[in-house]
UniProtKB/TrEMBL annotation:
This is Beta-lactamase domain protein. The lineage of its organism: Bacteria, Bacillati, Bacillota, Bacilli, Bacillales. Residues 13-218 form the Metallo-beta-lactamase domain. InterPro entries: Metallo-B-lactamas (IPR001279), RibonucZ/Hydroxyglut_hydro (IPR036866), WalJ/YycJ (IPR058121), WalJ/YycJ-like (IPR052533). Counteracts the endogenous Pycsar antiviral defense system. Phosphodiesterase that enables metal-dependent hydrolysis of host cyclic nucleotide Pycsar defense signals such as cCMP and cUMP. It catalyses: 3',5'-cyclic CMP + H2O = CMP + H(+); 3',5'-cyclic UMP + H2O = UMP + H(+). It holds the Pfam family Lactamase_B. It comes from Paenibacillus algicola.
Length: 267
């Protein structure tokens, strides 16, 4: 079995992604209620009993809302770096000591044949990370909640067969939107969220023969739309000399209210 994954939910109302291979199943974040996560897992014809552990990207509520409840319900280990543990301790309730596992931001960990490599990202959290997953020559990169794509992030996710990449907002819609200026400035800043244009710029540099698909994730419901995000990302890539057909490289949707179909990376 190859690496397969489903983005269960993506956006400011809650984030969770399931990644698995033949011997390991991991949940990235648990930013919805335990009940809702169970419902989304059921959509993918699986249950919480099949999960082997939870990886945490950072401590914001849309990534850890149901973390404690899910971990306690299924007796799951939680993996996060020390600063993230410190920042989220009060929010997630009691966790059994054996399930409180520190996975530092530069630490590589093997879960059976599934290798996990965290990497640091830029966001207004204690020590936020993205993750890359490997099984043999397969690679899945997950990078959301980042203000900009640093050289370190580029090196971490380059060569991914499939990417889950933040495309949070349209800059003009955000500037004209109802948020107070301080919030807009935070989102637009280096510790905020990635715009459609910035996602397109990053993808134009990352696109190689290895990369088959990119899922645009963490879209703002107030300042973005999936069709707009895909159009802007594609136009930005073409402006930078990156032309492609859907048969060669495809931009894919994520949703805040339902899961994406299973996507399997081919060997």
């Amino acid at each position: 079995m190859a690496i397969s994954f489903s983005v269960l939910s993506s956006g400011s109302t809650g984030n969770a992604t399931i990644v698995r291979n033949e011997d390991t199943t991991l949940l990235i974040d648990a930013g919805l209620s335990a009940r809702r996560i169970d419902e989304l897992l059921k959509e993918r014809e699986m249950s919480g009993e099949e999960i082997d552990g939870i990886l945490v990207t950072h401590e914001h509520s849309d990534h850890i809302k149901g973390l404690g409840a899910v971990a306690r319900k299924y007796n799951l280990p939680i993996y996060a770096n020390e600063k993230t543990w410190e920042a989220m301790n009060r929010s997630i309730g009691n966790i059994a000591e054996e399930n409180r596992i520190v996975l530092q931001s530069d630490e590589v960990k093997d879960f059976g044949t599934l290798r996990v490599e965290p990497f640091e990202i830029s966001h207004d959290a204690a020590e936020p990370v993205g993750y890359c997953f490997y099984d043999g020559d397969q690679k899945l990169g997950v990078a959301t909640d980042l203000g900009y794509v640093s050289d370190k992030v580029m090196r971490a996710i380059e060569g991914s067969d499939v990417l889950v990449m933040e495309s949070n907002h349209d800059i003009e819609l955000l500037r004209m939107g109802r948020y107070p200026w301080n919030t807009k400035r935070r989102i637009l800043g280096d510790l905020g969220h990635l715009s459609n244009e910035s996602a397109g710029e990053a993808l134009s540099e990352l696109l190689t023969g290895d990369t088959k698909r990119a899922y645009l994730a963490h879209l703002s419901r107030d300042h973005n739309m999936m069709d707009l995000a895909k159009m802007t990302v594609r136009d930005t890539m073409e402006d930078r000399g990156c032309f492609f057909k859907d048969s060669e490289f495809k931009l894919c949707d994520t949703y805040y209210d339902r899961s994406t179909p299973w996507d399997e990376l081919k060997k």
